[in-house]
Design goal:
single chain; mainly alpha; 3-stranded antiparallel sheet; about 10% strand
Length: about 190
């Protein structure tokens, strides 16, 4: 099996009521695992099985192969975008870039929230680096910034399976919880330096 489900970088119980262990059980243990298992079946015995996941998501044609590869990539990235005790503010070079490109951290949060809430149906809101400048973008379904040669900095999953157990259909409360309690700005800062 060329692709594997990554272990979570924290215990599923580490977030208390902000994200329940049950959510991780379904989101990581079932949804993400299914993408990985399906992807491995799709590439079995084919040349695609030798590609890295990054290579696969930018070369796969639209359809099941791309959808499962991209959802594996998106989720693997998302698990690192959250951390226990997260949600403070970026610092250093990343905060300087936030102020340069958005005017303020509050404006970045506003644009990020708007992208997450106006994403119709399933998808993702992202902070990306594009041509050296930070931008907020949204993608639907399995789509991701790598297809546009943008560098992902941070993302929030707005598929309902990411938050329905804990927040039901209150996507706004999920996004607020992400920004206030979960966002891993250290991971975002490392991505910004790439």
């Amino acid at each position: 099996m060329p692709y594997t489900l990554p272990a979570l970088p924290y215990e599923p119980t580490a977030f208390g009521k902000v994200v329940s262990a049950e959510t991780f059980e379904y989101h990581h243990g079932k949804h993400h695992k299914t993408y990985v298992d399906t992807l491995n079946k799709l590439v079995e015995g084919k040349p695609e099985a030798t590609k890295t996941l990054d290579e696969l998501v930018v070369t796969a044609p639209e359809g099941p192969l791309f959808n499962n590869a991209a959802q594996h990539w998106n989720h693997s990235f998302f698990w690192k975008c959250i951390k226990p005790g997260g949600g403070l503010e970026p610092t250093g070079e990343l905060m300087d870039a936030v102020k340069r490109d958005f005017g303020s951290f509050d404006e970045l949060k506003k644009q990020f929230t708007d992208a997450a809430l106006t994403q119709f149906g399933s998808g993702w809101a992202w902070i990306v680096k594009d041509g050296g400048k930070l931008k907020v973008v949204k993608t639907s379904n399995a789509d991701l910034p790598l297809k546009r040669r943008q560098t992902p900095i941070l993302t929030v999953d707005v598929w309902e399976h990411a938050y329905y157990i804990d927040y039901r259909n209150a996507r706004a409360k999920w996004v607020e919880a992400f920004l206030n309690n979960l966002a891993n700005w250290d991971f975002a800062a490392a991505n910004f330096k790439k």
